[in-house]
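Please produce the structure of this protein holding pyridoxal-5'-phosphate.
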Amino acid sequence: MNSLSAVFKSLPSVDKVLQSVTLAVVIERVGHEGVKLETRLQLEQLRQKITQQDEDSLNWLSSPDFFEDLCRKVKSKVEAEFSGSLIPVFNLTGTVVHTNLGRACLPSAAVNAMTIAATQATNLEFDLATGKRGDRDSHLEESLCALTGAEAATVVNNNAAAVLLMLNTFSSHKEVLISRGELVEIGGAFRIPDVMKSANCILKEVGTTNRTHLRDYESAINSETGLIMKVHTSNYEIRGFTNSVTESDLSQLAQEKGIPFVSDLGSGTLVDLKQFNLPYEPTVRQTIEAGVDVVSFSGDKLLGGPQAGIVVGKKELIQRIKSNPLKRALRVDKITLAALSEVINLYKDPQRLTVRLPLLADLTRPLSAIEAVAVSVLPLVRNSLADKAVVESGACKSQIGSGALPLDLLESHALIITPIAEKGHTDAALNRLAASFRSLPKPVIGRISDGKLIFDLRCLRDVDGFIEQLSSLLL
Ligand SMILES: *Cc1c(COP(=O)(O)O)cnc(C)c1O
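Below is the modeled complex.
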């Protein structure tokens, strides 16, 4: 007992650690309190180890470097704690709009606008002409109407919020007619039947999974019907013996019966993507022209902007959405609004979109440019993996992602890495290899397919940054 208390006595005080030269810079950066807490924690853990007669700890304590080691340990713990866990990565997955990797990267014009909105007071909800309260949607509404042909527009947190809001506004405690083939799950907890429940709506399925006809909707309409809804089946396709009802037919039926008709477009696009040699996707304007009353779509899928849900349509119906108390809970923040305005403005000049909007630049990147990236990185990656893996380059296919155009793949080029391992150990070697790329300072995320690690080079822009950190690869 005596010897134990003698050992405890030999531990430095918290103050002594805090006064060390090693910790001066980190204290300056994060403040005294954070470092003090960590120091206390480290000393407490050490006391417990000593009580348990832990040999390593006792040896450490008696080593000449103990004090300096302890200070360094506190320093690195504090630095790790304050460095933040949201960090940039290289998206070499081949999925351009990758939800788990943050979807679209924003153009610099949007980033500048975000900085201004974030650091200065703005006229977010202030009418400069009258000096009275304004509407935050006013900053976008005119542009959105001009680009889509709609009468009015509003913006919320994301498209999931937009769908919830449309359902709740138009059909609370009433029936929503929707085709059985459109009861989609987008991923995570977003499943149309569940969203209907959350919005207080009664789901009324019409037709069958593969075929739904106009008469199915017609015969389902009764006094309890609140809404007709169409959901873009963005992440799957039903093929074969199929039938679905066109938007113009449905809109005519809805109009005759005096029921609102809404469409969740999912990705949505403001321009015809075929002009960029991309697969066809219905535009918001076409959907509005087909007679749909209200259309919703994402800000950060094919649009290439920040996370947002955009709702456009008939003035009277958009007004009802705006007056729903839920709108206040789901509204978009000023920083997003600033970024979205800039992105929407880029769409007024479609010719330059593929240069100015990073998402479209990636989606339309010429194969020759992607191949050129492969030529420049191949020897270096090969070199850094030496006897651990065979590295080749070859053709691959990129996906747009986030449910947009799931079946259409873009020609691309990749590094194809096959680990060198004894038979029966290839999976473990492959996982180790992928993990070591993920532990780089700027993690490199690829995809594993068929026993190989694939790095699709479509989205690799910072080639120098990619190459530079290869020397830190721990295999
Ligand atoms: C992606 C998607 C949503 C959800 O949009 P978020 O912007 O991710 O909230 C809703 N409906 C459809 C059809 C989608 O594809």
